[in-house]
């Protein structure tokens, strides 16, 4: 009983925290003459079978498949480099795109990717972060994958994180069967992109800097410290006329429930059981 009271004082509660008491509970039942009714025994079995299904099939089940999908994208980049399926664009060649559907780049000024660094930073928001050893960094000298989490952060803190993240140009899949993988130049021979993994019950626009004041039907604004709060006042990245901040959906993993957000699921009537993977981009606005 003392152990139960002690564990009950911990702010963060999970059923697994009671596992150390299981052996004592079994010993207590074995040494007492308390009889458990048939109805209660059946109820215990049904309850535990239901929990095993929910926690085994739904609870945070999308985290591992999500990192597998991101690993697959990383491998696609390496394959595209090998096959010269890439494209440099922008006023200063500051945007680098990869796709297996691109024509082979035969430019004489093609970059030597052995000297380049391609970074993918992945933020897991309001969900569990996968084990770091599952991030595919087999060829991290060329394409590195950095996993980060927002555990313990409140929404304003997450917004501040995304304010400092690297945004790429808007993804354009209209001419191709799949969305190109796009990076933005952040330094000499260094390109980067930022991904955000967020449960589908959350509208990603709540994490956009100044997003609530951004008009013209776009998700949010880039806030580069100029103190402006509307799209017309946002300072765009170098070489861009005007830009608005947005989360572009890359892919989703189904049958994912985050029990730390169970109240949100009930409030939204379980409207989404997806775990969504977004890329942080800017969209030019004339």
TrEMBL record:
InterPro entries: GPI_mannosylTrfase (IPR005599). Its main location: endoplasmic reticulum. It is a multi-pass membrane protein. The chain crosses the membrane at residues 15-32, 39-58. The keyword Lipoprotein does not apply. Keywords: Endoplasmic reticulum, Glycosyltransferase, Membrane, Transferase, Transmembrane, Transmembrane helix. GO terms for molecular function: glycosyltransferase activity. GO terms for cellular component: endoplasmic reticulum membrane. It comes from the Eukaryota. It is found in: Endoplasmic reticulum membrane. This is GPI mannosyltransferase 4. The lineage of its organism: Eukaryota, Fungi, Fungi incertae sedis, Zoopagomycota, Kickxellomycotina.
């Amino acid at each position: 009983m003392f152990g139960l009271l002690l564990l009950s004082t911990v702010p963060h509660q999970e059923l697994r925290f009671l596992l150390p008491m299981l052996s004592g509970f079994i010993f207590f039942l074995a040494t007492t003459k308390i009889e458990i009714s048939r109805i209660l025994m059946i109820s215990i079995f049904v309850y535990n079978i239901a929990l095993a299904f929910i926690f085994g099939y739904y609870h945070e089940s999308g985290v591992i498949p999500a990192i597998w999908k991101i690993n697959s994208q990383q491998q696609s980049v390496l394959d595209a480099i090998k096959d010269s399926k890439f494209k440099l664009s922008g006023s200063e060649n500051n945007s680098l795109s990869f796709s297996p559907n691109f024509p082979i780049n035969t430019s004489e000024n093609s970059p030597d990717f052995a000297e380049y660094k391609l970074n993918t930073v992945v933020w897991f928001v309001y969900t569990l972060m996968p084990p770091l050893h599952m991030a595919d960094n087999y060829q991290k000298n060329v394409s590195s994958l950095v996993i980060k989490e927002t555990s313990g952060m409140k929404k304003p803190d997450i917004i501040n994180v995304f304010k400092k993240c690297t945004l790429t140009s808007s993804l354009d899949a209209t001419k191709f069967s799949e969305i190109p993988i796009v990076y933005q130049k952040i330094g000499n021979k260094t390109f980067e992109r930022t991904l955000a993994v967020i449960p589908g019950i959350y509208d990603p626009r709540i994490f956009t800097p100044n997003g609530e004041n951004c008009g013209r039907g776009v998700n949010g604004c880039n806030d580069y410290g100029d103190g402006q709060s509307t799209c017309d006042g946002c300072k765009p990245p170098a070489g861009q006329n005007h830009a608005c901040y947005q989360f572009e959906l890359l892919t989703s993993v189904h049958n994912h429930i985050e029990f730390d957000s169970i109240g949100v699921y009930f409030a939204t009537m379980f409207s989404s059981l997806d775990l969504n993977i977004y890329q942080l981009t800017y969209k030019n606005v004339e």
